[in-house]
Amino acid sequence: MTRDIPGPGGSWLLGNLADFRAGMLPFFERCRRDYGTVVALRLGPRRLILLSDPSLIEEVLVTKNKSFKKHFATRLLKPVLGNGLLLSEGNQWLRQRRLVQPAFSRRFTDEFVQIVRLHTSRLADTWRQNPRRELYHDMTQLTVQIAAHAFLGISDAEDTEEIGACLEVTHADFERRFQQPWSLPTWIPTAPNRQLHRAVQSLTSIIDRMIDERRKDADGRHDALSLLLRAEDEQGERMPRQLLRDEVMTLLLAGHDTTANGLTWTWSLLAQHDGVMSRLRDELRHAKSETHPRDEASFARKIVKESMRLFPPVFVFGREAISAMNLGDYPIQKGDSILMPQWVVHRDAQFFPDPLAFDPDRWTTEFERELPKYAYFPFGGGPRVCIGKEVAMVEATGVLAALASEFDVSLEDPAGLTPWPTVTLRPKGPVWAHIRRRNGSVTTSRIERQTGSDV
User: Fold this and answer.
1) Would you say residue 359 has pLDDT above 70?
2) Which of 178, 248, 276, 407 counts the highest number of beta carbons within 10 A?
3) Residue 401, SS3?
C-alpha cells in the first residue's frame, strides 16, 4: 500500500523556490519538522523528494542504486567536469572507477601524507609571521596547493594561484545557475558564461601542459596524473586525453573544496571549545610519535568526524529516478530528484543525543556500531561512495594535528559565523581569526622532521 507524500504548498509557477532561496538549510529543517522524513517539494518545473530517513537513503544509495542517476544540480557542473567520475553513469562510470582507483593506492596515500605535511609546515611559517588570518582563505589556499601537488605534481605558486582563482569562478557559476528555475545554456555568450569559459580554458591549459610533461616522464612518479597515465583497463587500453583531462579536473574540484570547508568549520569549532583543543594537545603531547592521520582511534579523527556531522562539507546528496518505483511505501515518479540532506540527518536527536553540541567523544566504537548506517554519510555511500574519502580524512587530520600542536586560534566574530550552502557548505563571508603560538609548542625543527625529505 502506497502513501501520499506530504509537503509545503507553493506558488503555481515557481513552487517552493522562494523559500528555497531565502534559506535552504532552515527550509530543509522546517520540512523535516512539519512534514516528516519524506517530503515533496517543487522548484519551478522540477519535483524534489526530501529524504531524511536512513533506511530510505540506503535504498537510494545502495539497494536500488541502479534505478537512479546524478540529479540535475550535479549535472550543472558538466561544462567544467565533462564525463569525469562524478558525472559519468553506467558502464562508463564503472570503467572509469576501475581506472581511477589505483590513483588512491597505499603508495599514493603514503606520499600524500608527506605532501600534506610539507604544505602545512609552509602555512605554519606564514602563521608565525602574521597572526591575523582569514581562515577560509588559508584553508582554501592550503588545500589547492596540496591538490595541485598531489594530483598534478605542481608546486609552482603562480600555477596554484591560477587554479584556485579558476575553481572559485566555477563555484560561483554553479551557485548562480542552481538558484534559477531555468538556466540558459552555457554556449550562449552571456557575461557569466564567458567568464566560466575563460576559467575552464585556463584550467584546461594547465592540465594539458602537465599531461604533455608527464607523458614524457611519468615513470617512477606517484602523483595522480602519472598514475592515471599508466592505468589500463581489462583490454589494455588507456584513457583518451579528453577523459584524462576530465578526471583531473574532477580531482582538483572535488579534492580541495570539501576539505577546505571541513577544516574551516573544524577550526571555528575548536576556537569556541577550549576543552576539546586541550584534549587534542594532550593526545599530541603524550603520543610517542606524531598522531598518524590514518589512526582511526585518534582524537584528531574524532574531532574531524564530529565537525563533519555538524557542518558537513557536502550538505545534501542528490539522485534522479530513471523509472517509477516505490521507496518504502512512497511512490516515486520517473524524473523525481531525490535530495538526502546530511545537514538534517546529522542533526537528528533520534540518532545523535544533544545534536547541536560539539562532542567528539560521542564517536566511540560502540556508538558507531549502533548508529544506523545512513544516519551519518558525509561521503555518500554505496557503489558511488566518494573515492577519495580516506585521502580527505588523512588530509584533514594531518593538517589539524600539525597546526593545533603549535597554535591557538580565536575568532574575531564567532556569532557572525553563518553557513552558506553552495556547491559545498561554506562560511558566509570571511572568517577572521587571531593566531597565537603556545608556550612550549612544537618547534619549527620538529615540524620539518615530521615533513621528512623533499617530496
Assistant:
1) yes
2) 248
3) helix
The total number of residues shown for the chain amounts to 455
CB 310 within 8 A of CB 346: yes
Alpha helical stretches, state H, 41-105: 54-58, 72-75, 78-81, 90-100
Separation of alpha carbons 284 and 134, rounded Å:
25
Whether 151 and 248 have beta carbons less than 8 Å apart is answered as: yes
| 3-state SS, residue 399 | helix
**Complete DSSP assignment for 8-45:** ---BTTTBTHHHHHH-HHHHHHHHHHHH-SEEEEEETT
Banded pLDDT at 1 (limits 50, 70, 90): low
Quote the CA–CA distance of 27 and 316 in Å, as a whole number: 13
What whole-number percentage of the chain has pLDDT above 90?
53
Nearest of 173, 149, 178 to residue 163 by alpha carbon: 149
Cα 68 to Cα 249: distance, rounded to the nearest angstrom:
24
Q: Are strands 337-340 and 46-51 parallel, antiparallel or unpaired?
A: parallel
- Residue 234 DSSP label: T
Q: pLDDT tens, 396-438? A: 999 999 999 999 999 999 988 999 998 899 999 999 999 999 8
Chain centroid to Cα 202, Å, comes to 23
Does pTM surpass 0.85? yes
Tens digits of residue pLDDT in 97-150: 888 887 787 778 888 999 999 999 999 999 999 999 999 999 999 999 999 998
In this structure, the number of other CB atoms found within 10 A of the CB of residue 299 comes to 22
Residue 131, all three cell numbers: 597572526
